[in-house]
Design brief:
This protein is α/β, with parallel strands linked by helices. The chain has helices spanning 6-15, 21-37, 49-61, 84-90, 103-116, 128-131, 152-159, 177-182, 185-191, 230-233; strands at 72-76, 95-99, 121-124, 141-147, 163-173, 193-200, 210-216. A seven-stranded mixed beta sheet has the order 3-2-1-4-5-7-6, with helices on both faces. It binds S-adenosylmethionine.
C-alpha cells in the first residue's frame, strides 16, 4: 500500500474533496498495484508516487461532482483504471464498467478489482466501437467518462453511443480542450450531443486539467459508432 502524501491530503482540502480513511487506504493499495505492475508492462508514464497521487488520483476524483444523479458509469479506454477505478473506490453506491480494448490492460483491471474486493466494478475487454453497437451496452449508461483516449471528435463517436438520452459524457482533458471542441462540432450534432460545458478540474491548484461535460439530447443514429478503427481513421 502507498501512504497518501501530505500534499495529496492538502490538495483534497483545497479543492473541497472529502474522503474517508477507508477510501484513502484503498486508493493507496490501488496506486501501489498500478505502479508495481507498471514496472513489468507499460500502464502509465507517471512513475513517481507523489505525482501519481495528484495526476492519477486527484484528477480522476475531480470528476466526482459531475457524476451527481448517475447510477451507471462506463470508463472508455480505462487503461490502468483511470479515471474509473478511483471514482469507483470513492463512490461505492454507483456501478462502474471499465472498458479497454487491450487484453493485458483488461487483465490488470480484473486483478486490481479482485485484490481490492470491489463489488461495484465490471471489466469489459472490448473495443468501444463494438460495445457501442451491442444491445447490452448501447445507450445503457447514465454517464461515460474518459481520459487520454483521443481528440474530442474521435472520442465522441466512441462514447456518446454508450450513453442514454439525457445522460452525459464527461472527458478529462488537458490544455487543448478548447481547440478540440472547435473541431468536434459536426460529431456533436451527428451523434445526438447537445450543450457542452468546460470547467477547470482542480480550481485553486496549479493544474491544467479541464473537465468537459457533453449532454446527450437525442438518440445516436444506428450507423454510429462505425466499424472498429474508423472513428480514428476518418473522424467525423
Ligand atoms: N484512460 C487511461 C489513462 O488516462 O491513463 C488510459 C489512457 S491510454 C493512453 C488509452 C487507452 O485507451 C489504452 O489502454 C487503449 O487500449 C484504449 N483504447 C484506445 N482506443 C480504444 C477503443 N476504440 N476501444 C477501447 N479502448 C480503446
Amino acid at each position: 500500500m502507498l501512504k497518501a502524501p501530505q500534499s495529496f491530503l492538502d490538495d483534497c482540502k483545497t479543492v473541497g474533496l472529502s474522503l474517508n480513511d477507508e477510501a484513502i487506504q484503498m486508493l493507496g493499495r490501488y496506486l501501489h498495484l498500478l505502479l508495481e505492475t507498471n514496472k513489468k508492462f507499460n500502464l502509465t508514464a507517471i512513475k513517481e508516487p507523489e505525482q501519481a497521487w495528484r495526476r492519477h488520483i486527484l484528477e480522476s476524483l475531480a470528476l466526482l461532482p459531475f457524476l451527481e444523479g448517475a447510477t451507471t458509469v462506463i470508463d472508455v479506454g480505462s487503461g490502468g483504471g483511470l479515471p474509473g477505478l478511483p471514482l469507483a473506490i470513492a463512490s461505492p453506491e454507483r456501478r462502474f464498467t471499465l472498458l479497454d480494448a487491450t487484453g493485458k490492460k483488461a487483465r490488470f483491471l480484473e486483478t486490481a478489482v479482485a485484490e481490492l474486493g470491489l463489488t461495484n466494478v465490471t471489466v469489459l475487454n472490448e473495443r468501444a466501437e463494438t460495445a457501442g453497437q451491442s444491445p447490452q451496452h448501447r445507450q445503457r449508461y447514465d454517464v461515460a467518462v474518459s481520459r487520454a483516449v483521443g481528440p474530442m471528435n474521435v472520442l465522441l463517436e466512441l462514447t456518446l453511443p454508450l450513453v442514454q438520452v439525457e445522460g452525459r459524457f464527461i472527458a478529462l482533458k488537458g490544455a487543448k480542450a478548447e481547440a478540440e471542441l472547435r473541431d468536434a462540432g459536426d460529431a456533436l450534432v451527428v451523434l445526438g450531443g447537445g450543450e457542452v460545458e468546460a470547467y477547470e478540474a482542480l480550481p485553486n491548484l496549479e493544474d491544467e486539467a479541464v473537465v468537459v461535460v457533453v449532454y446527450k439530447l437525442a438518440t445516436t443514429p444506428p450507423e454510429y459508432p462505425r466499424r472498429p478503427g474508423q472513428p480514428k481513421q476518418e473522424p467525423l
